[in-house]
Amino acid sequence: MGLKKRTKVNAQFNMSSLTDIIFLLLIFFMLTSSMVVPNALNLRMPGKSKTITNQPKYLPTEIKITRKGNYYLNGSKASLLGIEKAVRKTVRERGKFSLVVIPDDNVANERVVAILDIAYRYQIDAIMTDPK
Amino acid sequence: MKKRNKISAEFSMSSLTDIIFLLLIFFMLTSSMVQINVQLAESNSKTVAPSDLIVMMSQDGKMSFNGKPVSGSSLQSRVNGELGQMTNKENASISIVAEVGVPWRKINDVIVIAKNLGIKAHIATQPVKS
User: Fold this and answer.
1) Is the CB of residue B86 less than 8 Å from the CB of residue B52?
2) pLDDT tens digits for A13-65?
3) Are A111 and A65 in contact (CB under 8 A)?
4) Best interface-test mutation with B: which of A67, A110, A111, A124 has the largest number of B CBs within 10 A?
5) Distance of alpha carbon A46 from alpha carbon A91, whole angstroms
6) Cross-chain residue pair A33–B27, CB shorter than 8 Å
7) Is beta strand A125-128 parallel, antiparallel or unpaired with respect to A71-73?
8) Which residues of B, range 24-43, sit inside 8 Å of A by Cβ?
9) Do A107 and B114 touch (CB under 8 A)?
């Protein structure tokens, strides 16, 4: 019988598909591992900072935060939105200025961070006072 | 004359797979280690919180430093001890990871400790939910 096998079965294993899946998983975990790290607001310590701060031309704006989390902008009660509007207006009219934040020592931290966030967004200095 | 050695032109991907697999395991482990299950104050900051000195505070008054429970009075000595082992002391920074509702005075105490030790401080936040 002069019959010959025409098709030769390739016994080699191709790893490229496995590499594709592992690479996809690697990218997924790389992205998610950076997402779970929280963001942070940088605090500048007195006498430690090398950054030149903008010297305010006007009197700084004072924000008091009460124990219950109410805001007082220069002595009058204000909402967070109202404070942001006032800050935006002042930045537009005067340029950079400083916010003096006077929190009550028992106020929830997120109420203070909300003010620090406004200062961060408008690139102005928020000076924290020690509640003690 | 015949060529005796036949050079294989095939490329073996197994070494590449090994490296990628190693990196995959590394990121899988680190992503589960850094997970923080507390609700933080919200901000628009994009700065990533440094992870060398982490002070965590929960609403029930518990405080931990680098994963180990600590009291408010012993925090400064613990931070100082950890700082002594660090090589890059100039850029050391305390990350304050405080759950929402933690009173500001507790955060202020940690800021004062950072000031006393001459190191930076960050308040950890989470992105604003729209």
Assistant:
1) yes
2) 777 788 888 888 888 887 777 666 677 888 877 665 555 555 555 566 889 99
3) yes
4) A110
5) 24
6) yes
7) unpaired
8) 24, 27-28, 30-31, 34-36, 40-43
9) no
- How would DSSP label each residue in B92-125? -EEEEEEBTT-BHHHHHHHHHHHHHHT-EEEEEE
Mean pLDDT of A70-83: 91
Class of domain B42-127: alpha beta
Interface TM-score (ipTM) > 0.85: no
CB–CB contact B95 A40 (8 Å):
yes
**What length is written for chain A?**
132
Per-domain boundaries in chain B = 42-127
What residue of A is the nearest CA neighbor of B12? Answer: A15
Extract the residue ranges of chain B whose pLDDT is less than 70: 1-4, 31-37, 130
What's the CA gap between B22 and A31, in Å, rounded? 16
Class of domain A61-128: alpha beta
Chain A (9-38) residues lying within 8 Å, Cβ to Cβ, of chain B:
15-16, 18-19, 22-23, 25-26, 29-30, 32-34, 36-38
pLDDT, one tens digit per residue, over A104-123 is 988 999 999 999 999 999 98
Q: Which two tokens stand for residue B57?
A: 């505070």
Choose among B21, B44, B103: nearest Cβ to A106. B103
CB of A129 within 8 Å of a chain B CB? The answer is no
Q: Is A104 on the interface with B (CB under 8 A)?
A: yes
Q: B19 with B25: CB under 8 angstroms?
A: no
